[in-house]
Amino acid sequence: MVHNGTNSRFPSVRLPDDGPISPEAWSQRPAFGDLTRFWLSRHQMFRDLMSDLRARLRACEGGDLDPTDPDTALHRDGRFLCQEMLGHHGVEDSVYFPRLIVLQPSIAPWIERLHSDHQDIGCSLDRLSQSLSQVRDGARAVALVSSRLTAVMELKLRHMQAEEETVVPVILTLGEDQLR
Ligand SMILES: [Fe+2]
Ligand SMILES: [Fe+2]
Q: Which 3 state secondary structure label does DSSP give 2?
């Protein structure tokens, strides 16, 4: 689990047979099912979309793309990112985090940190969303959008890694059916 630049794996959940397993092997476990696969695919979508927006913003800064061209779609895709990420956090906070705490009460402190991350990321998403509304004004807005996207990415990438390393071992231990 990664917080504040440290890396300490969640300490109290251990798989019964062979101890902790690497993220690369998660999908090979019998308890890894459609719900977990879908949840991780949402995380990958966020990683891909943030990376793609970062590339488009760099192309705008280099003069290779026009930020006001509808095909560049910074406003459209940036707003999509903000809305989807806020919705994702909302479902985790209201549905899955409470269920995980009931299933594994000892992870409550880690879940509270993840919930706190959501609040911090939400503030960064608000600032990104505000800057996106200026993109149609042209190149001057690009640097602002770029810096605010960077702020979101730094928080969100660290958060997703911590979240996956906290939640997936619990799912692989207890089975995802208990989360439904
Ligand atoms: Fe989250
Ligand atoms: Fe998440």
A: strand
Ligand nearest to the CA of 120: 1
When pLDDT is cut at 50, 70 and 90, the band that residue 20 belongs to is low
Question: What's the burial of 56, exposed, middle or buried (CB within 10 Å: 0-12/13-18/19+)?
Answer: buried
8 Å CB contact between 2 and 158: yes
Quote the pLDDT of residue 173.
87
Q: How many angstroms does the Cα of residue 118 sit away from the middle of ligand 1?
A: 6
Cα 89 to ligand 2 centre (Å): 6
Domains of the chain as residue ranges with CATH: 31-179 (1.20.120.520)
Of 31 and 93, the one with more pLDDT: 93
Give the global pTM.
0.88
Distance 163 CA to ligand 1 centre (A): 6
Instruction: State the distance from the centre of ligand 1 to the C-alpha of 51, rounded, in angstroms.
Output: 18
Contact 23, 164 (CB under 8 A): yes
